[in-house]
Amino acid sequence: MGFRDRLQAKMSKHGGVVGLAKAAVRKAGGGSPETGSPAPAAQSLPALPKQAASDGFVAVGHSVKLSSATAMQVVQGEEAVAIFRTEKGLRAISNVCTHEDGPLGEGEVKDCVVACPYHDWRFDLSTGECLSHPGREVATFAVRESDGFVWLGSKTREGSGERGGAHDDGMEVLVKDLDAES
Hints:
Blueprint: H1 3-14, H2 17-29, E1 58-62, E2 72-76, E3 79-86, E4 89-94, E5 108-110, E6 113-115, E7 122-124, E8 140-146, E9 149-157
Helix pairs in contact: 1-2
């Protein structure tokens, strides 16, 4: 069983990309199985506000839990979102790569660009633009930090919605003609 088969099996088990993202959030932070929201890790942290702010922003995590070394991966509604602390401030993009649905929140960040951990497609965290394959942008979201919480707002840009494409990881893409072998 290859990598893609394992990924497809995991997505089927969890009900698709969003279900897989929710499972990853629960595994990483012990969040709620229904919402995927991270559970507070320490007694000293206040509970996340349950009500959205008047402008629609929703508290999705504690500021102290978001470092520049790792992304905060959350699921809000049907959206899997990765929130990054960069030298330019907080940035929020879809946590689903437009190549093969890789978790962008697990990618390496350098100069406000994240590289997908699966095949190295690179995305600008400020604009969502795909630097590897123009026209394959990911969605971006409004995000802010106040009162010790990270607040996620509405989508500011739609993603391309396309999937698939060439690999940028140096691996050869093999296409096999099964009819020729018969």
